Amino acid sequence: MLDNASFLQVIGNSPLISIDLIVPDGQGRFLLGRRTNQPAKGYWFAPGGRIRKNERMNDAYRRLCDMELGLRNLELADATLQGVHEHFYDSNFAGVTGLSTHYVVLAYEMPPTPIDLSTLPPDQHTDYRWATPAELLEDETVHHYTKAYFG
């Protein structure tokens, strides 16, 4: 893990690579969380996070499923790559003026996963909900980068 000053240098000089988890419930709905952090604070978003330096993609996927969803021992091979996306933000996690954030995002759809929303960790999201693609595409509080996975 990097300290904040080092992480700001990385953000200022290179894109971040991340995995977004597209989580279906098997009933035509997908998991959304309301972000607590910048960038995209306050928007409904797909769960996910950065791949760390020297972390294999499968290990990152397993870590993110555990940290974001409380699901252990899941394998990337069981998910389906839905595309590679670029996310550009004018802001950053620390609120430093003039410092943008650029992500290269690997969007993976997991197999249908029953999840009790009340058990999800509150670290990255204040609330969670299920939404159909039609519902989330119509909702202005769902971030346009998440909508891109369904539109």
UniProtKB/TrEMBL annotation:
Motif Nudix box boundaries: 49-70
Q: Which domain of life is it from?
A: Bacteria
Q: Does the keyword Cell membrane apply?
A: no
What does the Swiss-Prot or TrEMBL cofactor note state? Binds 1 Mg(2+) ion per subunit.
Which residues are in the Nudix hydrolase domain? 12-151
Q: Name one GO molecular function term.
A: GDP-mannose mannosyl hydrolase activity
- Gene3D superfamilies, alphabetized: Nucleoside Triphosphate Pyrophosphohydrolase (3.90.79.10)
Entry's PROSITE patterns?
NUDIX (PS51462)
Q: What is this protein called?
A: Nudix hydrolase domain-containing protein
Organism of origin is Burkholderia cepacia (Pseudomonas cepacia)
